[in-house]
Design brief:
The protein is mainly α and about 130 residues long. The chain is built from five helices and no strands. It has one domain.
Length: about 130
């Protein structure tokens, strides 16, 4: 493979990843690590997706209330709570401007309990449906 072809491949891959990141309500500070294994080098044939990346890919790379309600990495926090959009409506929760933890990395769950997440989602829905 020529150097130019290799360079074009990596530029196209980075652009696609940035486009998919924009489909999440928030993607800072974890960016690519939301979906990819942090230490793996993704390739076209092996994108090195983590559990959240696989779920996001399976959902057509579309954020939804279903995806928000999952706990892809099994750490006790829903994807929505970790990303900052508990109800999965595509908009960050009030006052949230960055992810609390990584939805694809087990063990970094924020301190919010599942009960608090559900309650916040219900309150947010009540106010949004005025």
């Amino acid at each position: 493979m020529s150097v130019l072809a290799l360079l074009l491949f990596f530029v196209a891959s980075a652009s696609a990843t940035e486009e998919w990141q924009q489909r999440l309500p928030l993607h800072v500070p974890f960016s690519c690590d939301n979906c990819h294994e942090p230490d793996a080098a993704p390739t076209a044939s092996a994108p090195a997706l983590n559990a959240f990346g696989l779920a996001f890919d399976d959902s057509g790379r579309t954020w939804s209330s279903y995806l928000a309600g999952l706990d892809s990495d099994g750490d006790g926090c829903t994807n929505g709570a970790e990303i900052g959009d508990v109800d999965g409506n595509g908009h960050p929760d009030n006052g949230v401007d960055h992810e609390s933890s990584n939805p694809g990395l087990a063990g970094d769950c924020s301190s919010a309990s599942v009960f608090e997440e559900a309650t916040w989602g219900e309150l947010k829905a009540m106010f949004n449906n005025r």
